[in-house]
Amino acid sequence: MNLHRKGRAALVLALVVVVAMAFRVSWNALRDIAGAIGADDTAATLYPFVVDGLMALALIATLVLAGRDRTFALRVLAAYTIASLVLNYVHGLVPELHGRSVDWGRLADWDPANWALVLLATSLPVGSIYFGSDLVAKVLHHRPTPITAPITNAEESTNIERNRSSSDLVVSTPAPITPNARPLPRPVAVGFLKSTVTAKPVEAIEQPTVTSIERRAVAAESTRPRRATGRVPEVARTPRPKRTPDELLAEARKATADWPDTRLTAEGIRREVRTSPANARSLRDTLRAERGLQVA
Length: 296
Description:
The chain is mainly alpha-helical. Helix content is 57%, strand content 0%. It is built from eight helices and no strands. The longest helix has 35 residues, at 2-36.
């Protein structure tokens, strides 16, 4: 573990040294470019911090951030690296920039190239303010993802909880009652007071024999609604006993003996005697004739 930490510390230190040397090499070029676009001595001295300093800030943000914020930091780092490379390249192509003998605002002989270079050099300080503040805000509001515990620890904690719960169950569970346990002795009546009455022995109560219930397989009742199967065939129908007209008339007389005349109708007789409508009408006419009523 100590060797691993020492290796990481040595790697970071080497990176700081390389960045510092690269910053010193790029110092003259960026300072001369700043003087060529109209900056005074103080501004030209601070100009390398604007470009290369933001590159260092973007590099640190890349190591801290993650996801889309890290991609944004990488893009800022790449953009300012390319801009610094272009300005250093222009400084190497134009010897007049070394002694600051070039005219102000003149970085190339071709006008379109000169305009593009001046625009690039003058826009870098403004971009440093915008991108630098954005990167700092992202770093300050960044929340690192929590490190999940190893699986082995989770398994160990599960086993500990399981053992603990099982031990609790053993303690809290009462001892089982064995069937061969000896019964308690019967209490013996002790005569503390003088009495001539002798105690009668109590007969043992016979335990009823328990018959084992035979388990039978019962078909599960279906929950599906039964479909209509149509008319019941004649063979399956229960034949009704056939009554003669005299039997129907006797049964109708008995059923309608206490009926008023207004209730003596064919429908009422049919329901009471349970016969056909034709027989009910015939019985109605006969009963009304017996009562001396007018037949309908």
